[in-house]
Amino acid sequence: MGTDAQRIRELAEGLTTALARPVGASDEIAGALAESVAALRRLADVVERHSDAAAASGRPAPVEVVAPVLGVDGCTAGWVGALLEPGAPRPRILVAPTIAELVAMVRESTGIRVVGIDIPIGLPDSTIRQADVLARKALPGKASSIFSTLTRAAYAAATRLDADAVNRGLVGQGVGAQVFALRDKIVEVDSWLRTRPTVTVLEVHPEVSFATMTGAPILASKKTDDGRDQRLAALAAAGIARPSVLQGQGYAADDVLDACAVAWSAARHAAGLARSLPDPPEVFSDGIPAAIWA
Q1: Coil, helix or strand for 245?
Q2: pLDDT tens figures, 164-194
Q3: 249 exposed, middle or buried (CB, 10 Å; 0-12, 13-18, 19+)?
Q4: pTM
Q5: At residue 82, what are phi and psi to the nearest 5 degrees?
Q6: What is the rounded CA–CA span in Å between residue 158 and residue 182?
Q7: C-alpha to C-alpha distance for 214 and 226, rounded to whole angstroms
Q8: Sheet of 69-75, strands arranged across
């Protein structure tokens, strides 16, 4: 039995003991405890099945969505989300101009537990993030897909040249145009996180997720037919059905597939199966855990 499953069962047993010795507990409290115990036991079964399958095949078993989760990727229109719900393996695709609007849109009808986002979360002060270093090591042949996260001070700079000077002074690394192009979205998510949204928010990198699904990085570019087909096959084998919509106004097929991969990792986190790079996450002065989850 996996360690995580054992811990969940121990928690369930602790609640069972509480049920057996209620002290002035109302029927409502006793009923809620019973439901919690049953839910924990189901979760332990899911974790154990996944652990056994992973040990046998070297790949994770198809994900079992135990709670609604949202995977998010940036796109021309703003943000595209892939919503996974229990009993519905086909992700629902949604688009909004801001991350706050996207999450609010989903929460109008669904009580999502986890939001995964393909964006750096937790900005370093004067060091290189271990999340980026470890993610590159996890992607042989695909390491270039992991950009170095800039320092918080560099993201506060108004221009790329200013950011370059700041980042070089702090960590000795320059700032290319492609990296600086992500600045607005990184700052947007960082600002949103500071509003303390009442949902678990994770950083997920789709290529790390796909590599975890398949046991190795997918080397074909996500913008080619071959790369798209390989990613669709990886998602299907991982328990995520082909989305009914692959592209639309302001978002492309690779954006949708990335969002689906992020949702897969979010679902694994909700089920207690995801692992972080690093483990435990780093924490900088912003107090936000910095790690890539898969």
Answers
A1: coil
A2: 999 999 999 999 999 999 999 999 999 999 9
A3: exposed
A4: 0.82
A5: -115, 115
A6: 13
A7: 15
A8: 88-96, 78-85, 69-75, 114-117, 200-203, 289-293, 276-283
